[in-house]
Amino acid sequence: MGKSDKTQAKLQFDRHKAGGPSGEDAGPGQAGGPSMPAGEEQDLRQILVTMQHSLTQIDGKIDSLSYCMDRMSEHLAEHAERLDQAERRISEVEDGQTE
User: Fold this and answer.
1) What is the pTM of this model?
2) Could you give the dihedral angle defined by the CA atoms of residues 66, 71, 77 and 83, in that order, rounded to the nearest 10 degrees?
C-alpha cells in the first residue's frame, strides 16, 4: 500500500469514526458503505498498535523523568540546606572575630 493509499485509508477511517456519510455516498469503512478492504484495515490496525506501543513507551519515559526530577529536587534541597548552614557558620565566625 502506497503512502497516498494509506492517507486515503486514514481519511476514510476518520470519516467513519466521525459518523460521516452513509448509503451510496459512503466510502469504504463508513456506515452503510462497502466494508474497508482487509489489507487497509490490517494496515490501520498495525498503525494503531504501533501508536499505542509508542504512547506506552513515552508514558514510561515521562514517569522516569518525573521520578528523576523529584529526586533532583530533593538533592538540591539538601544542598541548599547545607549551604545555608555553612553561611550561618561563616557569619557566626565572622561575628566572633569582629567582637
Assistant:
1) 0.47
2) -130
